[in-house]
Amino acid sequence: MDILKASTDWAKAELWSNGFFALFGVVFLVASLLFWSRGETDMAKAFVLPMFVAGVLMLILGGGLFYGTWKSLTGFAPAIAEDGAGFVAS
To answer: pTM of the entire structure?
Structure first.
């Protein structure tokens, strides 16, 4: 098995899942805004702040994980070319 291909495939799959995590954060923000604008009951109005906070946190975490994985993905090829044994060990 080629270690570079396995590492690259793993990082691409992680990018995919991190993108979905950030997308769910956006969905939570939109739902929060809809509860705020369209909510007529007290229960609907009670969901505005918790959903907004959850959406912001999910967006921050998803974006941060996406960025970190993207940076490591771009560093795989140079790292294995520089020190293949060290790359496998790490």
So the answer is: 0.78
